[in-house]
Amino acid sequence: MPTSDIPSGGGVRVIAGTFRSRLLTAPRGDNTRPTSDRLRETLFNVLAPRLQDSVFVDLYAGSGAVGIEAASRGAAAVYFAETERAALSALRSNLATLGIRAEVESAGTATLLKRLLAAGRQAGIVFLDPPYEAADEYQRTLGFLGGPGSSLLQPGGIVVAEHRRQSPLPPTIGTLESYRTLKQGDAALTFFRQTEAEQSPESR
């Protein structure tokens, strides 16, 4: 997640839930961009009905602020993927400080998704926030999640991608179709779900 919106003191705060107002460490330097407090609040206002006891996957996690917010608000399990060294250090420090038990994949997004798929683990919510300029990362990750026969999303599960407002994502990627886009400042959140043909009858 490349750097803006870091409050004085070098961190962001958990907005609500069990860890409300706890300060998180953010990695120093220009390699990560924490999702702003306002955008996180918007995101979780939308996700609120889905969070309790959900399996949440935070890809390109940076300091882990989004996944930690999900855990704070009732997610049953959270998985993180991050490769950048400073971000990994901040992420692991935040989890240890808050006493959150979660899996962190330091080999990156593709490795985590393949491992979850191989284990038969399904997610209710997948959030991804690659560097805005890395168009190939959006295409690769969304393409994997929407690939033919992919079962990583549970019935009714969704994918949320944060991206630059001026760079809209395709309306469909494989079996994924966008159904909502929220814009705030220079950023946007696009929500995807599986097309009706790919959903089980129970999820409709």
From TrEMBL:
Domain of life: Bacteria
Keyword Transferase: yes
Keywords, comma-separated and alphabetical: Methyltransferase, Transferase
Enzyme class: transferase
N-terminal signal peptide: none
Cytoplasm listed as a keyword: no
Enzyme Commission code(s) on record: 2.1.1.171
An example molecular function term from Gene Ontology annotations: 16S rRNA (guanine(966)-N(2))-methyltransferase activity
Protein name per Swiss-Prot or TrEMBL: 16S rRNA (Guanine(966)-N(2))-methyltransferase RsmD
Organism this protein belongs to: Terriglobus aquaticus
